[in-house]
Amino acid sequence: MDKTIIRDQIKQYTKDLISQGLYRKREIHDEHKDIINFSSNDYLGLSSEKNISEAYQLGFARYKSGSTGSMVVSGYHNIHKELEQEFKTALNVDDCLIFPSGYAANLSVIALISHFKINVLIDKGVHASIYDGLKYSNTKYIRFLHNNLSDLVLKINKSLKSSVIITESIFSMSGQISPLKELSKFINDNIEGLIVDEAHAFGVIGREGLGAVEQDNLSQDLVPLRIIPFGKAMAASGAIVAGSGEWIDALLQLSRPYIYSTAISPAYTYGILKSFEIIRAADSRRAKLRELIYYFRSCINSSGHKWRDSSSPIQQLQLGCPEKALAYSLKLRDSSIICAPMRQPTVSKSETGLRVILNYNHSFEQIDSLFEVLNKL
Known about the structure:
By secondary structure, this protein is of the alpha/beta class. 42% of the residues lie in helices and 15% in strands. It folds into 2 domains: 112 residues, Aspartate Aminotransferase, domain 1 (Alpha-Beta Complex), CATH 3.90.1150.10; 231 residues, Type I PLP-dependent aspartate aminotransferase-like (Major domain) (Aspartate Aminotransferase, domain 2), CATH 3.40.640.10.
């Protein structure tokens, strides 16, 4: 193909995104005292904590900055094993595997399911990484309506044997909490178990912040794999998959992102280990976060906008229009408030709008400032 034609196609693609209000660009988000950030996943406010910063500094003083290889070649170090052991004990599971990212972990879990030709039932609202895993592995799946158990019953009746149900414990866009306990009641001879992405629940809910699976007291027999990314309440990067020994071992054998990615830094892993200790002792932070959520929901009662029903730190304002979502975000920015627009393909057109994320460092006054601007739009 002629280079000019390729260039013109690329330019037209970008122009089309701009005209549809779907063009994305990066913005620098350095810390600034006058900026209120309602788009950060830092639920417990740990990213700026001095003791965590010091833990990372100590990690780089004690351990190698680079792992030097894949986990299955030369990159698996004692500190990695120690972190896996801490999660294993806390979550009462057989074993764990550390991944370079939550995205890589979800791709790997789906590849495992595909390899054994396990049938998949997924909540319609699961994360893009799960959909991508299904697409890349060419895995057939059946979707049920978001958090709709009645629809799941209908879909199970149409599904084949040897199936798993995949869901998020707190959904990244709607903020709604999955009814895991009710879902676990579907497990029988045909449904092997639940696969749960705990990205937005870990650190936020459950005993010691250990997530929704722990909160609902579900064993690894019911949830053979749970995915815990470190990029949210842990204020880090990477992920861990925890669960039943047979599943974890098979995941190690089959996961290409695990086998062919350089393991995360041993020094960095030490910082994550210390962050995990702090998260488990952060009940006071979780209590304040619950107070902020309750206050936010009370403000919604006097709002003229359409909000999703959510009892988590994620609150979704539905505007149904990408141009409007972008305009609202820019108006908030004019008032020194960051709240990124959520648009297709991340959400459907009807769910297009703003995603407000509450964290420990917010105040009631900052929530008032947000609604003061929104209520004028």
